[in-house]
Amino acid sequence: MSLISLPSHAILSSTPNVFTALNPRDADKAGQGASVTNPQHIPRDEPERIVLANVNEFGWHCVNVVEDNGCPPWSFTIGLFETWAHPELIVIGRSRATSHEMLQSLATKIEDGDPPKLADPDPYPLLGIPCHLLEVNPRYYSDYVGFALWFYRKRHFPLYQIVWPNHENLYPWDEQTSKPFKEWQPVLGRRSD
User: Fold this and answer.
1) Phi and psi of 27, rounded to 5°?
2) What DSSP character marks residue 177?
3) Residues 6 or more apart from 186 whose CB is under 8 A from it?
């Protein structure tokens, strides 16, 4: 029995060809950079081993939860806070490929010492998309990032949601936004502006 509970439709990224946390431009540095400074308990199964290995080798890991029964997919990071003291990130409602590309783009900037300004009320351009970064209310952690709770052994870690606009450049909080879009991308925090 595992210490973590993942939805049956969760996918753990683990190889370069399947949305890995490895940045291809840093392949030559693998194993030379970040390492887990606060070792976790001994992994009990393959998903736990994969997460610990990726965080130890690459500094972070991406968990993808696929769409199921009308619920939107989401992807989140594990290890950004442990490795670079940067909040973990979550994207809801985007494809696995797009979510991973968004998270990898930000992880690269964080690793390079150019993290996004989290308190900035203006949209952050991410893959050409004007996104907002909102602090997630901890009451949502167990519903969305349970594997990260396992990794941090229930220690508090900050988490920010990457909120993206629809094709009309409207966000879930905009009055004119359709109900289906709001349901596809639930907002887990509050805007500060």
Assistant:
1) -55, -35
2) S
3) 72, 92, 172
pLDDT digits (tens, 9 = 90+) for 98-132: 999 999 999 999 999 999 999 899 999 999 999 99
pTM of the complete model: 0.81
Block residue for tokens 């004119």: 176
Neighbours of 6 (CB within 10 A): 15
CA–CA dist 138, 153 (Å, integer): 15
* Residue 20 pLDDT greater than 80, yes or no: no
The dihedral region occupied by 77, where left means phi > 0, alpha psi between -120 and 50, and beta the remainder, is: beta
Residue bearing tokens 């925090």: 189
Residue that has been written with the tokens 């966000």 in this structure: 171
